[in-house]
Amino acid sequence: MKKILVADDEDILRMLIVDTLEDLGFEIEEAEDGQEALEKLEEGNFDLAILDYMMPEKTGLEVIQSLSKETKNNIQLVMLTAKAQEQDRQIALNAGADYFIAKPFSPTELSAVVEEILA
Amino acid sequence: MNEEFFSSAANVIAFVVIFYMVAVGIIYLVLFLISGPKIKREKYLNREATIEEMIINHDTYPISILVPAYNEEMGVISTVRSLLSLQYPQFEVIVVDDGSTDQTSSKMITQFGMKKIDIAMRAHFPTKEVLDVYQSNLFPNVFLLKKENGGKADALNAGVNFSKYPYFAAIDGDSILERDALLKTMKPIIDSGGMVTATGGSVRIANGSTISKSVIEKLALPKQPVAIMQIIEYMRAFLIGRLGLSRMNILLIISGAFGVFEKSRVIKVGGYREKTIGEDMELIVRIHRSLKDEKSKQRIEYIQDPVCWTEAPSTLASLKSQRVRWQRGLAETLWTHRKMMFNPKYRGIGLFSMPYYLVVELLSAVFELIGYFVIVFGIFFGFIDTQVALIMLAVTVMYGSLISSLAVLLEEWTYHKYPELKSVCILFFWALTETFWYRPIMVVWRVEGLLATFKKKADWGNMDRKGISED
Amino acid sequence: MQWVIASLVVLLVIQVALFIYILISKKITLNYDEKVETLYQNLLPSYIEIVQDTSQLEPRLPENKKYRKDVVEKLLVRLSEVTAGEGEKARIRKLAETTLLDAYIKILEKGSWAERVNTLFYIEDFGMISIKDHVWQHLGRVESDDENEEYRQTLRVLATIYPEKFLTFILEKDTISESLAKELFRRLDEGSLMEMEKRTSGKTPIAFKLAFIVLCGEMKLNQHLPFVERCLFDEQKEIRLKAMKSICSYQYFSKTEQLKEFFESEHWEERMYAAKIAGVMELTKYRDHLVDTLADPVWWVRFSSGEAISKLPDGEILLEYVASQNEDAFARDMANQMLTTKATGLRG
Q: What parts of the sequence cross the membrane (chain B) (predicted)?
């Protein structure tokens, strides 16, 4: 089973994402801030991480930058950004994110993107 | 004979001071009555909803954020990082290293992977030479200007020269903006279709609270009484004073800690003035002046939302230097623009706010100092009627604490209030003690500041730029 | 003497009263917020399920009307902030219409200013169509001042849920700011926008026209492109400029050969937009024109020309050539700047 980490400080977003992805049959772990996300990513063998751009402790961007090369090579990174922050998106992609999803998001779209990435 | 003369002179002075304090108290009450209803009306307004639209609106003008930095190697990186987390469709951050002697520039360059670029700069104003311009590889909207030392105003002018957007925000190196600060401050400008030419928001004191990456994680009062007193002072100054003046469109200060300006207007009036201490206030006065001179309908607006947090000086020495500086800045600005004073051509600015700043903000220190002398000497040496001295004491206490408690009330109507019941008690308690220790100290320093203005110490160029300027 | 003491006592009493008032009202607010927060946390999981359509079971809501309204509102606001799917939106709307409708009608009639404004925002967020007649009536009660948030929001809501009435109302108005007009038109559906285009005539206030022209580009509404292209040759400069701005956002127009005259315009704004359009559309045939405008007396024209050249396929080489060979110092400086600066402008 593919393993996914969902890192977001807002519980409602985490709950929504987890709800959506669990139905698709993925194994999911959660992190509430950037530091926790980083630690979990380095330990567990995740296939995909969904990171919020803005998180306490470490932003999504900082998490990507602090990942070890090995982890980075073996994982797909999806960044959640606010709808209008076009600048953020570009920066996230430059820094090594593979995809981004704009908030607010549609659960159907999210499942489609995740399934495509992990197919 | 002699004694009698002293005694009656002292009594006259005492009455003058009492009259002054009552008058000032009434002015504050009037300002409270002007600002109170607006705050009350918007008490339950959901502010996030009102700025949502701006994020997707193409009319939300892009902004250049100017960060003048002189020997700020300690703070500059975190300031820029927190600016990068601001919610705003499009902005650039321009750090102006004003000839720092420390590692300000090299820290920026390594942290943000900056590389040198060539720039065809427009010179709206002459400034000290800009040596190099850098752009970050990681964040293409972060720039660094390295220039020869010329003071804060010069650095800001260089930043304006370089900036490419129609509006700019000037912030102090040590202030922290809330994530939606730019949206909230730009809102009046956009809603009015450009009729608002400059805006500023409330500045709050961060001491005691935990703020990280532009998000307030925990709101709490600081432990040191000096810091608590400054919090009360800020509430009073912003929620009563500035909001009241702003509603009459005669606000004279946009805080140097954070303000947004229409670039073309600032260029028109000639930019920041060098060799002045309160360059932020001086600029606003000049803008008002030019608006009135050309009979423009544009205005300057203040929003009551706290958008900017700043670390208040917590040691007496730094507090003293801040207050002396403010006082000097205020005195200089008023002197520079003395022609506007009582000049009916400038309407409310000339007839009310200039005199208000002169009499209430600048000279209150003198009146209060006399007041304290009268109280002490009157009671101990019997120069004046004990009763008069007591009235004066009571008026002083009331003058301070009643206004303060009204400010606390207004603060309770805004959001971001302290979340504990206890904090109200603490604020009220310290507000009551103000007259007995905090005010006398301030009064003495502010009088020192006044005296310093006359002496004009020759240290403009490289003045102590620590702390926040003009609130 | 006595009156002095008396007035001091009065002041003291006022202050004590103030203190007690603040303390009590703060306590009440804190308790209330805490209760709503607890309810919110308890109800959130089941609301997420309903909105995701994994369960139809409606949870038990609190009996107290105020609590019920506040907690459901909070749940739906948060949910509508994070979800964008059509199905989710429809379910949020249904939930709002079943639980909040009565409360909202009452607030529109009797609530305080802040309550009304908030409610109008939520009505739009939840897309509560069934309340549209009440909002329409509400418009008659609101002070029609462009800077009054309540008026603005009432119009926004109407544009979203009641476009027919909105159009009739707005086309009869003669003053409204351009930026507000844009905000409002952005909400209109395709049919109403077409109606809008048809109904613009010589009598339409210019702010409306300008807003509409720019908006068409921002939203890349292809069916209105011919209209915008016609505006390029309007006799009013303002309209021409907005049409050029709009074309920049479309990144397309059909008569590129006509761009030439704008490069030679006496108005610098037209020269600037001509350069911008040549850039976004990568019109290599205008490279010589762009090199000319790189030496324009106006900085903005030079800047836009530089940006435009750097967007051309062989732009970098051209810039290097200009930077080293051009006789105009302005042009060389600008070319140098373009060569070393990374583009930051994401929108024109």
A: 12-34, 239-261, 356-381, 388-409, 421-438
